[in-house]
Structure formats: C-alpha cells, structure tokens
Amino acid sequence: MIFWDTERQYDGGNLQYSINAGSTWQNVGFNSINTNCKSANWFNAPNITNLNGLASPTTGWSGSTVPTNGSCLGGNGSGQWVTASYCLSNLAGESEVFFRFTFCSGTSCNNYDGIAIDSFSISNLPEPSLSFDYVCETNDRVRFTANGGDCPTIQSWNFGDPASPNNTSSSFTDVHTFSSPGTYTVTFTLDEPCIGNLIAKRTIYIPDLSAEVFPLTCNSSDDGAIQLTVSPYPNLLLTWNTSPMQTGVSLSNLPVGNYQVTLSADSTCTLVESFEVLVNGDGGPNPALPLDVLFCGGDVIALNPGDFDTYLWSTGSTTNTLMISDTGWYSVTVTDLSGCTGTDSVFIRERCFTGMFVPSSFSPNDDGINDFFRSYSGDVYEYSLTIFNLYGQELFVSNHPEQGWDGTHENEVCQNGIYTWQIKYQGPDLKRRTVRGVLSLFR
Questions:
Q1: Alpha helix (H) ranges present in 174-292?
Q2: For every residue of 138-181, which 3-state class applies, written as one string?
Q3: Was domain 356-441 assigned CATH 1.10.150.80?
Q4: Which pairs with CB-CB distance under 8 Å and at least 24 residues apart come from 28-35?
Q5: CATH top-level class for 130-206?
C-alpha cells in the first residue's frame, strides 16, 4: 500500500532490491506504467531529478494532487492509498533478497505530505487455469477454442500433425484439418506474465474405417453382409440405420439395399459412412423362353430355356427341353450350380400359319400402283428378302416384310426383264424356311 504527494518530477521515491547484501541496488521495475496485468500503480515518473545518486535510472513515484503553482510542479499524485504491485519473476530462486525504499526532495516546494508505505508483502501468484474445447465440423476438420489465462502475451497451438503444412497456429481459436486418420496430441501453450508457459493437452482421435461388402448370392436370397475394420477408440460405438437398430462391426443376412453406419467414441469426431449391398453378378440363372409362340394343331414345339443344372416345368417334367403339342401357359424353374433359381414362362396360342404370297411382277413407274416388289404374309421372324439379276449379282436386300424393292440398284434404274428373289424367314410355328422364285419388272 502506498500514498505519494510530492512536487512532480523533482521529488519522489521508489523501491529497490539487492541480492548481494546491500552492496549494490537495482530498481524494482522500469519506467513504464502497468507493463502487464500483474502490475498495478507502479512507477509513474520516468525521471525524478533528486533521485540522482540513489537510483539509476531515476524512475519512481512522483506527483501531487494540487496543480502547478509558480515554479512548483503539480499533478500526478496518488490522492489516496493505492495498492501497487509488480512481478518479481527475475528474483525467483534467489537465496537472499534485500529491499529498500528511497526518497528524495529538494530545498524548495516542500509543502507536501511526502510518501507513505504500509502492508508490504511478497507472495506467490495463483496459476490461472488453462484448457481448450473442440468441435468437429467434419470427421477430420476440428475447431479449437482455448479457455483461461489472466493476461497472456503469446499463445500457440501445436496440433500434433507434422504431415500438415498448418500444424501450428498463434490464435486463441483456430480450425485444423488433420492430414489423415489417427491419434493426435493437441497442445495449447500460453505465455503468462510472471508465471511463464502454461500448457494444456488433449488427445484427439480422427476415426477411420474400411469395409468389405459381401453381395447376395442370388436375387432370391438375403445373404448379403458388411464387415468393418475399425481402429480402436475409447468407448467405441457403431450404430447402423437398420430397423431395429443394430450395433457392432458387422451386419449379416442382408437384402439388397443401402446401409449407413455412424462411428462415435470419446474424444473422437463422429464418422458416418454408407455402403450399398448388391447381388453377385446377374443374381442367378435367367431362363429364356420365347416371348410369344403361335401354335397350329398337329404341330410339336420344343421349348428350351438354356443350359442349367436342373429343370422343373409346370407340367412336372424335369428335362432340359419340353415338347408340347397343345396351347396354354408353360413355365420352367431352373437351378444353377450355385443353387440359385430363376423362372420364365410363355403362352402358346393357337394360330395356323397360312404361308407367304409373293407376286410374280411389278411396275416401278411411280404411278402409285404396284411400284414396289415385296412379300405378303402373317407374323414372321428373322425375315430377309434378296433380289438378284440373271447373273447372280445381288441388287437389293431388305430385313422387313414391308420394305420392298423399287427397281433400282445403287441409284441406277434397272431395265425391264426377269430377276430372281430369295426370302428367308421363321414362321409363328418357329420353323425356319427359305423360298425362291422369279419376277418380271416392266415399266
């Protein structure tokens, strides 16, 4: 506790220390006021004239509450008892320290109270608390915020991530994106005046997981699975978006679908990953029966769905080919070597094929009558029409019954005369046929 009332600049005093039993003395503090938050009401005068010979530099307390009067300088007095404090970190560890107060005054302008000292003490500063919080913005991007300290001058982060070009920072709040999954020791250091470095550390886990997804064996099975590999974390919890919710590193007996897992743990950023369970390959055998078959009484039609391990027809037959001679629905269930099944069906309807009519001549003279040579028939499949001249040269090809020949070849008009034709097709009875003939072209 101190009170000062002196002529400003000329008179005043200060506090000094000695570590050699009084042989030499040094000022406690400098000529700056309140150099940090640990100091208060310390030396307010940078140069007290009459301290010369007692102190170097001549800093200390000087001033009065009365204004300047003539040659007597006023102002800067304490006006009351105040608590003056200063950090003595430079004396830490000394075995013996002497303290003294100095005071000086001239021979004039002395109508002041002077300097009074009371309640002098030396004590340890309480160490302020220091900690930091973090919030995961993503599974690898983390926002850190420091808490504590009284009046820090320098602060720094070390995120324990040397592979990152931004491993350090010098702000109270910062965001760091970790270079890879792993375990990181994050350190926040605070330079606290009079105390030194305060350090807070926390371990942060950036999670990682890999997965093996097992597809379904067949379309008809629910034997898909997901197996996770996860780095160990304290109080690890894995939750799946299944109904009911499941936990753990694996799921089994899964149908086709999308599955999501959430990883959470102590000091770990939450990680969410999604996986899709599909069917292996084409999901099993795909028997291929004809889409539509026309049947005429007295015919026998062979149905063969392809090569598989076993067959079961709707008639009860287990042969690979079913011979039928009647209309109706027919279906087959086949099984492959993996035990997967597939089904297909066909409806056999009655309709006798009456053959194909091919004209013997046409007249491509653009009169709108008989300008194209073509065939006429019922339903046919795999149709092709080819026109030849008498030398066997191919002049025209059509793969559709309604597309006929206009009597030209490579944009040149063909002459009147005799030509030959060939038609290949498959009728509704699934029989393949080839017919040939001649035609007359005249204009």
A1: none
A2: CCCEEEEEEEECCCCCEEEEECCCCCCCCCEECCCEEEEECCCC
A3: no
A4: 28/86, 28/88, 28/99, 29/59, 29/86, 30/57, 30/59, 31/57, 31/59
A5: mainly beta
Joined together, the tokens standing for residue 403 give: 């597309």
User: Alpha-carbon distance 104 to 48, whole Å?
Assistant: 9
Both tokens of 332, joined, read 């087959």
Span 301-352, pLDDT tens digits: 899 999 999 999 999 999 999 998 888 899 999 998 878 888 999 988 776 6
Task: Determine the distance from the C-alpha atom of residue 210 to the mean position of all C-alpha atoms in its chain, rounded to a whole number.
Answer: 14
pLDDT, tens only, 275-315: 999 998 777 788 999 876 766 666 788 999 999 999 999 99
Virtual CA dihedral for 169, 171, 173, 175, nearest 10 degrees?
-30
β-bridge partners, 55: 52
d(CA 196, CA 166): 25
The pLDDT confidence band at residue 152, using thresholds 50, 70 and 90, is low
Distance, in Å, from the CA atom of 227 to the CA atom of 213, rounded to the nearest integer, reads 7
Q: What are phi and psi of 331, to 5 degrees?
A: -135, 160
What CATH number does domain 210-277 carry, 1.20.1250, 3.55.50, 2.40.50, 2.60.40? 2.60.40
Task: Give CA–CA dist 262/248, Å, rounded.
Answer: 10
Task: Tell me if the bond preceding 287 is cis, omega within 30° of 0.
Answer: no
Tokens 């076993």 appear where?
310
Q: CB of 64 within 8 A of CB of 76?
A: yes
Q: CA triplet 175, 181, 182: central angle to 5 degrees?
A: 100
